[in-house]
Write a structure and sequence with these properties.
The chain is of the alpha+beta class. The chain has 26 helices and 12 strands. Among the domains are: about 100 residues, Serine Threonine Protein Phosphatase 5, Tetratricopeptide repeat; about 120 residues, CBS-domain, CATH 3.10.580.10. Pfam families: PPR_2, PPR_3.
């Protein structure tokens, strides 16, 4: 009997995979029906003292919200009102550009600052620009900028300092590019050496890089090198080592570093070496993942015994998560109650939606419908922060699951109906999708609420490499090519993979992003591209395409870096068009079969 793979992307009155024409020649325009305000021309008065500190604070706030357009608008208004702005304000604007990922705009602002009658640049300006170039993987530009500073030809004559090197080094490590990070240390590492050896901050960054690239054991091995060089580890060093041990699932080594940290702090009478809330939280996550309830309880007791340790919301959340992972519902409830009690006097301790969802998952498993319902009702009035759409959707799914696990079929169907009416779709591979699938089995295809579409040609558990298209067949383009040379290709295909000079896929170029005929493709692509390994299941990739609305997913060789895809070579792609060709509606004959037979088919 053929295996069937079901998807629930849309309600019954919708059609699957309707693509709109996205290669439109019309350009976006901004219009408003509000009346235009007339302003009298204002001239800059030298006697007026500009309040630029308030403007800088405003720019920082807008940067956190990623409102770059608003920042530029208010900066231009300030220039018209006050005249020339100072370097501090313009540095804040550059930081906003880097934070929002627009390094080209940051470069334009940098060039404006270097003009003769402008505010000028300083070391902070260069450090911010280097950080942006590192995040954008424009390493050649970053090195050229550093060399100009070293030669003394850079605008503003800044001195080559550790601040500049560390800014670029941290950006490279955050991006997981250890090869270029080591190259930077080889070229400019002489600045970072104290007494002939690298500083402890350099090793802290390197350990962070190894962890980010999925090599925690390499980070742990650096501890021996630190000892051989005679460097003194600080609190950040120990926290990073403990985090690496947790990532490597070596909790015995984590506890050794934890003990060494406390002994050294006590011996040297150094308060800056004592474990902080980050140390304890990291250990809680490790032992919670290992389901070691005794160690979790021991760490919680030690945290509460430390009078100088302030247990914040993150630490309380880690306690509850660890208790739940160990199966201690009673312990989790006790800590949850303590959070709510203390939150009455300190609003900063009010639980985030994540904590409510963690509790709801545990009680949904047990089929405690009343408890999940109470948590669902209190999620809005009692939680702190923004409740994302994904969190709201999961909360609804958990309420449906708890009703089904409790045997209240009517309540489960009622909640599923509300989910369909509110969210219009449900991911079949999600936890809620599995619950909806169980309800579908009970109702049968004749009473189906979701109108599923089937993938009869594939098995959801099979690896994606069985149906992927080889990379050569989609003809990837080099990122150095200009758009005008390949523009007809984008008329025919909605998305094209982009590769670098070494053949590695560095991004995807979408038709709607093509806006500059003379620009290289690498400046318009979306990077990094969505990647999966060759062993990833077809079901997971299908869910990615449906949920994230990806038009193409890159398939790379299976990596040994703890499941990460960084540094792996692309071997194929899977597109939304392929999925569209695999979809088939439910056959009429299948709808007439008995429910029991259908349940076997669906599962």
């Amino acid at each position: 009997m053929p295996h069937l793979h079901a998807i629930f992307p849309l309600p019954s009155n919708s059609k699957p995979f309707q693509h709109s024409n996205i290669f439109s020649s019309s350009s976006s325009s901004f219009s408003s029906s509000a009346p235009i305000r007339r302003r009298l021309p204002r001239t800059f008065s030298p006697s007026k003292h500009p309040n630029l500190k308030r403007l800088t604070s405003r720019i920082v706030q807008l940067t956190r919200r990623r409102q770059l357009h608003q920042i530029l608008e208010e900066t231009e208004n300030a220039k018209r009102e006050y005249g020339k702005l100072n370097t501090i304000v313009m540095n804040a604007v550059m930081e906003a550009c880097v934070h929002c990922g627009d390094v080209d705009l940051a470069l334009n602002i940098f060039h404006q600052m270097t003009q003769p009658h402008s505010c000028g640049v300083d070391t902070v300006t260069y450090a911010t620009l280097l950080k942006g170039l590192g995040r954008a993987r424009r390493i050649d530009d970053a090195f050229q900028l550093l060399e100009s500073v070293e030669k003394g030809t850079a605008a503003g004559k800044p001195k080559l300092s550790t601040q500049l090197i560390y800014g670029l080094l941290d950006a490279l490590i955050e991006a997981g590019d250890l090869r270029r990070a080591n190259g930077l240390l080889a070229r400019f590492g002489f600045l970072l050496r104290e007494g002939g050896s690298s500083s402890i901050l350099t090793y802290n960054l390197l350990m962070k890089g190894y962890i980010n690239t999925g090599c925690p054991q390499a980070a742990i091995n650096l501890h021996e090198e630190i000892q051989l060089l005679g460097l003194e580890p600080d609190r950040l060093t120990y926290n990073t080592l403990i985090f690496a041990c947790v990532k490597a699932e070596n909790l015995e080594a984590a506890m050794r570093f934890f003990k060494e940290m406390k002994d050294k702090a006590q011996r040297l009478c150094c308060s800056d070496l004592y474990p902080d809330v980050i140390t304890y939280t990291t250990l809680l996550k490790g032992f919670g993942h290992a389901k070691d309830l005794h160690s979790v309880q021991k760490i919680v007791l030690e945290m509460k015994s430390c009078h100088d340790l302030f247990i914040d919301r993150t630490a309380f959340t880690a306690m509850v998560d660890a208790m739940l992972n160990c199966g201690s519902i009673k312990g989790a409830l006790c800590i949850f109650g303590e959070i709510l009690k203390q939150a009455g006097a300190n609003v900063d301790l009010r639980p985030k939606p994540h904590l409510y969802l963690s509790m709801m998952r545990a009680f949904a498993d047990r089929g405690d419908y009343n408890m999940v319902k109470n948590l669902h009702e209190r999620l809005w009035p009692d939680s702190a922060g923004t409740i994302s759409l994904a969190a709201q959707q999961e909360a609804d799914h958990l309420l449906m699951e708890s009703a089904l696990n409790n045997g209240q079929i009517d309540a489960a169907v009622e909640n599923l109906t509300k989910i369909i009416n509110r969210w219009k779709c449900i991911s079949w591979t999600s936890r809620g999708g599995m619950v909806a699938l169980r309800i579908e089995v009970l109702l049968g295809f004749n009473k189906s609420m979701l109108s599923p579409y089937l993938l009869p040609q594939v098995l959801p558990g099979n690896p994606i490499e069985r149906i992927m298209l080889p990379l050569e067949t989609v003809r990837p383009l080099s990122g150095s090519l200009e758009l005008k040379k390949v523009v007809m290709r984008l008329y025919r295909e909605p998305v094209v993979p982009i590769i670098d000079d070494w053949g590695s896929c560095i991004g995807l170029l979408h038709r709607e992003d093509c806006c500059e005929m003379n620009a290289p493709l690498s400046t318009m692509m979306r990077s990094p591209p969505p990647c999966v390994t060759t062993t990833t299941s077809i079901g997971h990739v299908v869910d990615l395409v449906l949920k994230k609305k990806y038009k193409m997913v890159i398939v790379v060789k299976h990596s040994n870096l703890n499941g990460t895809t960084h540094g792996s070579r692309a071997v194929g792609v899977f597109t939304a068009e392929q999925l569209h060709n695999l979809v088939a509606p439910v056959p009429e004959g299948l709808k007439q079969k008995h429910t029991v037979r259908r349940s076997l088919t669906m599962f």
